Design the sequence.
């Protein structure tokens, strides 16, 4: 039996370990954290959204980014200043931005989005299978995702995508204001909403709970070894790689890198040319402790295209997440970035109490093309399953299967 190491126990790591172990490999997962799903896969918006797979490499986003550059509460924020404490971060940020710009110019957005839709759709199907076979508890809900907009021009843009998206096998139900209220009555009273789109087969769930529950099944049912609290310092050796940690070194036949934003440093070592930048996002998790808040909170997952904010019901909690910030590797939680999420909740669901919430910030491992990296390194027996940016939860299951198929081929 071939021995494979997986670096990282985030959503990509646990899904990779799942499909590898089912394919008969002897799998060991390393993570510097004490449990699975403690970094970016901890408190995201929760959406398993095949409908949301479009990449952001468009002129419109670039011009919005420039317009919003100096607004602290902007949904998309780019820090143009050099970081004197971390010259490498400055270099990576400029490199990522120039490649993002070129990708927006070269007209690949549509074709990249179509690949993203395909991965997301297949992944959604696989999650349903995993739910059935593994019986995991992660507050999974398949109640659809409702996209809402506040202007007629945005609504026209959404409606115009109907044929394109439906041809890929994804439902795209165009709604007027009344239709929006019917799908999610908790939005009634939001007069600024003009309409939206409902994708009824989309789902939501708690990514951290999923990672923890799957890692437990992997250990008990599939014999996967987890080496937590063990940071991988290096991958050495030639065709037979060694995983070198702070504690020991271990020989393997193959290694899969699922290290989120840290994957960049392995790519630098192996000269694989990946450009993965940490695009920061924030969330708040509101405790729906009282019955009024519970009954006033949405059950359908909502994506507000005007504000670039998404929310999902996670058991008796409401997760509200958004914003994209290019400002380095730090995970500082800034009040100015959290406040728009609180204000949005108050505006959209005024009867939900926002007294008790947990703020969080995480770093999306985002490539400059916004396409994930699922494949071989230039270095023999090293593979990547990383760089899923804003869609790691959505694309995780199929990406795990895909890298397993590549390794077997
Ligand atoms: C605010 C926000 C909202 C989001 N909303 C959604 C959403 O609704 N739907 C969706 O699909 N996606 C969403 N995302 C994106 C999604 O959360 C990420 O794409 C995904 O979590 C990335 O998973 P990962 O496994 O690649 O990285 P991570 O979860 O960061 O996992 C990488 C793991 O590798 C470990 N690691 C790194 N280096 C080493 C090392 N040297 N040694 C040992 N271990 C190491 C880390 O400890 C970590 O556990 C959102 C992201 C944010 C920030």
Sequence:
């Amino acid at each position: 039996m071939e021995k494979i190491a997986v670096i990282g126990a985030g959503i990509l790591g646990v899904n990779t370990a799942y499909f590898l172990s089912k394919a008969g490999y002897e799998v060991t997962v390393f993570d510097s954290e004490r449990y699975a799903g403690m970094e970016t896969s901890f408190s995201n918006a929760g959406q398993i959204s095949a409908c949301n797979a479009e990449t952001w490499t468009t002129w419109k986003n670039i011009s919005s980014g420039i317009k919003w550059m100096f607004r602290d509460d902007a949904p998309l924020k780019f820090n143009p200043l050099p970081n004197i404490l971390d010259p490498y971060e400055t270099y990576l940020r400029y490199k990522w931005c120039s490649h993002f710009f070129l990708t927006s110019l070269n007209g690949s957005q549509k074709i990249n989005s179509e690949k993203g839709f395909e991965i997301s759709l297949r992944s959604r199907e696989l999650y349903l299978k995993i739910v059935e076979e593994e019986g995991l508890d992660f507050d999974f809900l398949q109640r659809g995702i409702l996209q809402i907009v506040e202007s007629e021009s945005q609504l026209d843009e959404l409606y115009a995508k109907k044929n394109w998206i439906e041809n890929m096998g994804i439902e795209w139900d165009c709604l007027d204001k009344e239709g929006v209220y019917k799908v999610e009555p908790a939005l009634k009273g939001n007069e600024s909403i003009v309409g939206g789109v409902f994708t009824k087969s989309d789902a939501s769930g708690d990514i951290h709970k999923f990672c923890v529950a799957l890692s437990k099944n992997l250990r008990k049912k599939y014999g996967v070894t987890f080496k937590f609290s063990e940071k991988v310092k290096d991958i050495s050796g030639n065709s037979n790689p060694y995983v070198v940690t702070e504690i020991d070194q271990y020989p393997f036949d193959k290694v899969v890198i699922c290290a989120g934003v840290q994957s960049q440093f392995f790519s630098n070592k192996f000269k694989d040319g990946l450009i993965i930048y940490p695009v920061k996002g924030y969330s708040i998790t509101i405790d729906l402790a009282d019955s009024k808040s519970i009954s006033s909170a949405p059950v359908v997952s909502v994506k507000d295209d005007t504000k670039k904010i998404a929310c999902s019901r996670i058991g008796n909690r409401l997760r509200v997440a958004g914003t994209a910030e290019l400002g380095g590797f730090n995970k500082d939680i800034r009040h100015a970035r959290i406040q728009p999420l609180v204000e949005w909740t108050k505006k959209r669901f005024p009867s939900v109490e926002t007294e008790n919430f947990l703020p969080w910030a995480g770093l999306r491992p985002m490539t400059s093309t916004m396409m994930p990296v699922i494949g071989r390194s230039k270095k023999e027996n090293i593979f990547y399953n990383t760089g899923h940016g804003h869609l790691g939860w959505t694309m995780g299951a199929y990406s795990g299967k895909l890298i397993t198929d590549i390794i077997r081929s």
Notes: The two ends are 16 Å apart (CA to CA). Residues 17 and 203 are 23 Å apart (CA to CA).
